[in-house]
């Protein structure tokens, strides 16, 4: 026979409902965009570089400074989500999104990048006809998705060490083709070169003039890659 205490406890538990509700909310996130502007260029072409998982905009921008010396305005937006890359918090990195609530995150990021481009336009007055969006690793999916949502803002796209997300293939197929640059490293252990080559092949099928570049050095932006990227940019956006 159950004691009075146990019976009371059991009835209390049965009277409790577990509610699993999803409340959609939003919050303002303070982030940054670092830039490197060329000297004595009144209306410079603009290269927006989207860093990868665990990186920072400031460190990522450093690799592209040689292009600023060639007359390009370089802008590196900071991803909105900081985290400790190392166990003891010695280094902080940033991430763009995860699988969790991905569609909402993509919308938020696209709004953030649009606001960033508008701020860059007010501050530097770049040439709106010569705007290239470059993504590296995770940042490449961000770049592809922004282009798919706002093709009128971007004149060319560069993807480094990344695949072509399945959710943007149909929008890219339907839009007006533009120049593309796809770079990969054969010894890359994070993003196999196969996925980048497949992305380049698909873009060609869509009618996009696509340049492939294979480089050495692993999953990173190398000086040789920057040199080849600069040559491609000059062809994609001739001086006006």
Task: Write structural notes for this entry.
- This protein is of the alpha/beta class and 240 residues long.
- The chain has one domain (29-236): Alpha/Beta hydrolase fold, catalytic domain (Rossmann fold), CATH 3.40.50.1820.
- 37% of the residues lie in helices and 18% in strands.
- It has eight helices and nine strands.
- The protein has helices at residues 4-14, 57-62, 65-68, 102-124, 138-149, 169-174, 193-205, 223-236; strands spanning 33-36, 46-50, 73-77, 81-84, 92-95, 131-136, 156-160, 179-184, 210-214.
- A seven-stranded mixed sheet has the order 1-3-2-6-7-8-9, with helices on both faces. A two-stranded antiparallel sheet has the order 4-5.
- Strand 7, helix 6 and strand 8 (179-184) form a beta-alpha-beta unit.
- Helix 4 packs across helix 5.
- It is globular and about 75 Å long.
- The model has no long low-confidence stretch (mean pLDDT 91).
